[in-house]
Amino acid sequence: MKILGIDTSCDDTCVALLEIRNLTTAHSQWAGSPSPKFRAAAKFDIKSNVVSSQVKLHAKYGGVYPFLAKREHQKNLPAVFKKATKEIDVFKIDLVGVTIGPGLEPCLWQGVNFAKELAKKFTLQIIPVNHVEAHIYANFLNYVPRQRNLFPAICLVVSGGHTQLILMKNHGQYKILGETRDDAAGECFDKAARILGLSYPGGPIISKLAKKINNGSPTSIILPRPMIYQKNYDFSFSGLKTAVLYDFRSRSSKIRKSKEYIRSMCAEIQQATIDVLIKKTLKAAKDFKVKSIILGGGVAANDELRKQFSRKLKSKKIPSSSPSLWSSVIENCKLNFLVPPKNLCTDNAAMVAVTAYFRREEATKNWQKIKVNANLKI
Ligand code: KG4
Ligand code: ZN
Questions:
Q1: Which residues does the record give as Fe cation binding sites (predicted)?
Q2: Which atom of ligand 1 is least distant from the CA of 9?
Q3: Rounded to whole angstroms, how far apart are CA atoms 171 and 182?
Q4: Ligand 1, pocket-test mutation among 200, 309, 346, 351, most atoms within 8 A of CB
């Protein structure tokens, strides 16, 4: 089976081709699943995963301009599709999965309309995909098949547009436990980077500069850890960004420009964010007695977040093992820890294609009726 994935929810034009081969149920990672539709085991082969980034275009604004992004998607989609499908006969595609939300509405329509054109031309069915669910399913692309039940799981989806803690009871069954009340964590990285005069997107550059602090020694700057001790599972990151702004303004121009100050600030922004994310995720994992913690979204590509999460879990005597290059799984009988490889944390269409596979029963010939929903909830 070949599934084409399309995502144009934000500023990346993404098209991927996923080949799925069925495995025997004996080796099925889904063998314990109560739902027959998830019982068939599969091996996923990412044939192509093309991401055309608009970062350079939006960098000068320090954020994404929806109508500029929409125009770029329209311009880029045919070439990105061609590149993603160059190795195969497009008539061999079985299904198209496309992100319908959440995201920027004018951008989402570009992907959906493109999927509809393909459906018409090649007589295909379309599966509408939720972008947040796709960030979670990025983990299943390379998860080594084993007879282990992962559910219930706590999913932390943390990106430029979302910061959500989700209880995943089984495939396709979710409950949002908490989310950000204002800025997403990635958005906070992006805005803080802009205040400090750093490039867009902020997450990767903040992470890089934070590494240059000598041996991770504590910095003299102390930023707040918003809502860290509150009993709920919500987040708030706009106060953190404001604290960065106030500190920056209170410094002389000489200090503001110094490498030492910028690096210390980056390390503290990163640590404040990590402290809140880890504390709330572990609290949710404990409160709901889950079997797994699953990360997803652009911020999950952060090295320090990955490291500190696994350190925290290991310190509870969870042996680590890395069964594949693609995903790191820390496991014991109590808790699995899944985080996608870094390139599958940030926006891509392979994650959309794999989600479409798990929702293949929802494929519709009635694709003319598919609409986008910028505020779609999982
Ligand atoms: O998932 P994604 O590509 O798009 C959305 O769905 O929003 O996430 C993009 C976000 C940006 O805010 C970016 O600054 C952040 O992810 N990001 C990172 C890292 N790489 C990307 N944040 C922290 N550390 C990183 N290494
Ligand atoms: Zn995303």
A1: 131, 135, 347
A2: 6
A3: 28
A4: 346
- 158: annotated binding-site residue? yes
- Rg of the chain's alpha carbons, rounded to an integer? 21
Q: What are the structure tokens assigned to 31, written together?
A: 């063998």
In the block, tokens 């080594």 appear at 144
Neighbours of 146 (CB within 10 A): 15
Q: Which ligand neighbours the alpha carbon of 187 most closely?
A: 1
- Is the shortest distance between the CB of 101 and ligand 1 below 6 Å? no
Q: Could you give the domains of the chain?
A: 2-140+343-369 (3.30.420.40), 153-339 (3.30.420.40)
Q: How far is the CA of 198 from the centre of ligand 2 (A)?
A: 22
42-69 pLDDT tens trace: 789 999 999 999 888 877 776 778 888 9
Q: Which atom of ligand 1 is nearest to the CA of 185?
A: 12
The distance in angstroms from the start CA to the end CA of the chain is 26
- Whose tokens are 């979302």? That residue is 162
The residues facing 232 across adjacent strands are none
Whether the model clears a pTM of 0.85, i.e. scores above it, the answer is yes
Residue type, 55: V
Residues of the chain with pLDDT under 50: 25-39, 147, 315-333
Q: Is 159 in the pocket of ligand 1 (CB under 6 A)?
A: yes
